[in-house]
Design brief:
alpha+beta; four-stranded mixed beta sheet; four-stranded antiparallel beta sheet; 11 strands; globular
Length: 221
Amino acid sequence: MQALTFRGRNLITVNSSLADLIMFAYSVQKKQITGAPDWIEQDRYDINATPDQEGTPGADQVRLMIRKLLADRFQLKFHHDKRELSAFVLTVGKDGSKLKPAQPNGNLHGIGVQPAKSGAMMFANNSPIPAFTSFLQSLVLDRPVVDQTELTGKYDLTVTFTPDDSLFNGQPLGFPEPAEGVEAAPRFFDAIQQQLGLKLTAEKAQVDVLAIDHVEKPSPN
């Protein structure tokens, strides 16, 4: 079973492929990694690493830590490119965006999902749209998400929805059923449109990819 967790200040990965680590470090999906040898998905690694800085690092610091590990231990080198892939394109709906600008000196940046009375609630605090789409494509949806909203700035948002097997890699994280007498929230795509004024459309689009230039199997340690 593949896992990535912290124990104290130690980052521990179990049975992780190099592809898993790249996807986490750069918030991409497997189909956004091109030109890589087959072994990046086949070989598995257990990693135990300690961050340089004091304290338990946040998600962005963990990603930077893994990027450094990939460069040092796997000699990973790549460049960004574009490729036409099946994607979800995020646009502003016909009635306009319902997003609320983040308040100055408000919440720290953060994005996540938690249980709600009527299903599940996704939240983003002090978040630019590219961070939101990165979260959607790396953890929620089964294909890349392309931002065509032309929205700038940072936003606070919540969207309440009913999870199904098309989300979270077919594993809706064990969210409980709505309580008796509570109306179930709308499905995810409907909730995005109704509550945020945004629209997710499945179509072919030019998507950012990581084109691998060089990678090596690490030496045992």
